[in-house]
Specification:
Blueprint lengths: L1 H28 L6 H21 L8 H7 L2 E2 L2 E2 L10 E12 L3 E12 L2 E12 L3 E13 L4 E11 L5 E11 L3 E10 L4 E8 L2 E2 L4 E12 L11 E13 L5 E12 L1 H9 L5 E12 L1
Antiparallel strand pairs: 1-2, 3-4, 3-15, 4-5, 5-6, 6-7, 7-8, 8-9, 9-10, 10-12, 11-12, 12-13, 13-14, 14-15
């Protein structure tokens, strides 16, 4: 009985194993269909390739006079195409320094320009009025020609105001040096063969949008002695100052500051001989404006 039961169990296991093996072979021989995602990718690739071919074959239509007229319309009778290369006349007036200095001295420095981008007329003036010494200063008329976006070359004349005024020919440059230093240098040829060189540099340090600290230095040198005008050969005078201004508007700014003046060499000797100071410090207060 036990042997018959074991033989029946073995026969059942053999039939189950044979059925499972046949199903496995059936699945392995049946080809698998590709995933839906793969089919979609191939379809998108074919569509993209066909769209690229369509784009590469596309050619924009040629421009017509109607297209150009629509792009550049006549604005109330002003055809903008006729003004594309205009160089309009422009002008500006600036008072860099208009100030009271300690010792009741009134000092000024300013400029005005008129013209076009290709060339401008510059008017410059600098001087001071001091009690007991009268008014001393100069006024210049110069033609400026730009050499690039930052620099102009200048040529013109200068007239000194004050005791025994003198006339000069002037040649110079002005512009914006690297790191935004404003620089001005001018050489002068005066009557009797007198020569002079004047250079000025200043910088604007923005403490806030309205509060600006401005260091400034100016130096003057002459080619020969002229005792009647207080001039000595060589480096004669250097002025260095700091001015702190507050721009109520960009066009209008009061300021306060301090300035130190030095005389050197033969110019200092001439100043000592007439009793003038060689070194001098002055507090200043003034306005800077332009329009």
């Amino acid at each position: 009985m036990r042997h018959a039961l074991a033989i029946a169990l073995l026969l059942c296991m053999h039939d189950a194993f044979a059925q499972d093996h046949s199903q496995h072979q059936h699945h392995s021989m049946t080809p698998q269909s590709p995933p839906a995602a793969t089919v979609d990718e191939h379809a998108q690739h074919r569509e993209h390739a066909s769209s690229e071919g369509a784009i590469s074959d596309y050619r924009p239509p040629a421009l017509t006079d109607a297209d150009r007229a629509a792009a550049f319309p006549d604005l109330h009778g002003h055809d903008m195409r006729g003004h594309m290369d205009d160089d309009p006349f422009v002008w500006m007036v600036t008072a860099d320094r208009f100030e009271w200095q300690q010792g009741d001295v009134l000092a000024w420095e300013g400029s005005a320009w008129f013209g076009h981008d290709r060339g401008r007329l510059w008017l410059r003036s600098e001087g001071e009025r001091e009690p007991g010494h009268g008014t001393e200063g100069d006024i210049e008329a110069l033609w400026g020609k730009p050499v690039n976006a930052w620099w102009d070359v200048l040529a013109g004349v200068r007239h000194d105001i004050g005791y025994d005024g003198q006339d000069w020919l002037a040649f110079g440059v002005q512009g914006l040096a690297p790191y935004k230093f404003e620089v001005q240098a001018t050489a002068y040829l005066g009557e009797g063969g007198q020569t002079a060189l004047q250079a000025e540099a200043e910088y604007e340090l923005l403490l806030t949008n309205k509060l600006i600290l401005q260091p400034r230095i100016e130096a003057t040198a002459h080619g020969r002695n002229d005792a009647s005008r207080g001039i000595g050969a060589g480096l004669g005078e250097v002025e260095a100052g700091l001015r702190l201004r507050y721009e109520i508007r960009r066009e209008f700014a009061p300021y306060i500051g301090i300035e130190r003046a030095y005389r050197f060499g033969n110019t200092a000797d001439i100043a000592r001989a007439v009793g003038d100071a060689v070194h001098e410090t002055r507090w200043v207060a003034g306005l800077r404006f332009w329009f």
